[in-house]
Amino acid sequence: MRLFLLGWLLACSLCSAQTTSLDYYKQHAIKGVPTEAQGVSFLVLGDWGRNGHFYQKEVAKWLDIASYQLDAEFIVTTGDNFYDNGVASIHDPYWITSFENIYHYPHLFIDWYPVLGNHDYRGNWQAQIDYS
């Protein structure tokens, strides 16, 4: 009986978590974003910030909502992904502080295609290609 009750509570909490998640996206829907898009849907992001400053975290949250609404297939960056001097390698701490810790929302776990800018070329530009 205890095992049944534990299983039932677990199932209810999982269903509740899914409903809460979908409700969040419905409550924060971006007006004007088409819901019945035809063709390829993708997002474009440029000069994405540094270590979560300059509204980078807020932009990431809204990017996630837009990705959900559009059912985006991938994200293209337009350069200057890492200020001031790009990244040194695929193990550079900027990957954690300026990318992984920021763009961690579920609908951003899609392919990213980086275009490099002048700040990115100051570092190891190949590392950004390899990381993506």
Automatic annotation (TrEMBL):
Molecular function GO labels: hydrolase activity
Keyword Signal applies: yes
Superkingdom of the source species: Bacteria
Stored Pfam families: Metallophos (PF00149)
Alphabetical list of SUPFAM superfamilies matching this protein: Metallo-dependent phosphatases (SSF56300)
Family annotation (InterPro entries): Calcineurin-like_PHP, Metallo-depent_PP-like, Metallophosphoesterase_PAP
Protein's name according to its UniProt entry: Acid phosphatase
Originating species: Alteromonas australica
Lineage, opening ranks: Bacteria, Pseudomonadati, Pseudomonadota, Gammaproteobacteria, Alteromonadales
